[in-house]
Design goal:
By secondary structure, this protein is mainly alpha-helical. The protein is 54% helix and 5% strand. The chain contains nine helices and two strands. Strands 1-2 form a two-stranded parallel ribbon. α2 links the parallel β1 and β2. α1 runs parallel beside α2, α3 (74-85) packs antiparallel against α4 and α5 (107-119) runs antiparallel to α6 (123-136).
């Protein structure tokens, strides 16, 4: 439970249907540190869940009459992410896989794992993780863009174009591709131009190494 409208409404509907509920919120980061930028000074995406989010989720659980718990996962995830940022990709992969072994629905972990695999050149494994993340969160444009990029880097150009077309169909008013928010995935100069060419149905060529 994030404390937001979606999870709260879902809990209320399930309660009304007679289901027995238990609420959980995953604490992924130490919100008290007030870190709002990454190591390059770029703004970090919104992180779930803040203390206010936890309080809101707990209040919903209390009002609906079911138990509520906070799962503190910040240390494992932060350790794996720190390894990733420091360039220890193999260590990061092991950390992400360990988290997914007990929490397979963690979209953020699957996304980061896909980014680590991609950085290692293990594109098929990256593609698998991005696709599994999209099964859970199909509207995540950043992950879909990363999936397209992984397809492109592995020379699967038709699949890359297909994902980009899906991405643009979801936001028809946007002329440009969204900026890549996943700070772990780095693409070579010129790759974005090739991907953008797919909007004009041109056949992009893989960049030379």
């Amino acid at each position: 439970m994030s404390g937001g409208v979606d999870s709260s409404a879902a809990a209320a509907i399930l309660k009304e249907q007679g289901h027995e509920l238990v609420g959980f919120t995953m604490q992924l980061w130490d919100q008290g540190r007030g870190i709002n930028v990454d190591e390059n000074g770029e703004p970090l995406p919104s992180r779930c869940c803040s203390l206010d989010d936890v309080y809101d989720a707990r209040r919903v659980a209390e009002e609906l009459g079911f138990p509520f718990y906070v799962l503190n996962l910040e240390r494992d995830f932060e350790r794996a992410t720190q390894l990733h940022q420091n360039g220890d990709l193999q260590g990061a992969v092991r950390g992400y896989l360990a988290i997914l072994a007990t929490h397979p629905a963690r979209v953020d972990v699957r996304s980061n794992l896909g980014a680590a695999y991609s950085a290692l050149g293990r594109y098929e494994e990256a593609i698998e993780q991005y696709k599994r993340a999209l099964i859970i969160d199909g509207g995540n444009q950043a992950i879909r863009f990363n999936l397209a990029l992984a397809y492109y880097k592995s020379f699967q150009i038709p699949q890359a174009i297909s994902e980009l077309q899906t991405l643009h169909a979801a936001q028809p008013g946007e002329r440009q591709l969204p900026e890549q928010p996943q700070r772990h995935t780095v693409y070579r100069q010129g790759e974005r131009d090739h991907l953008c060419a797919s909007q004009r149905r041109e056949a992009p060529r893989p960049c030379s190494e």
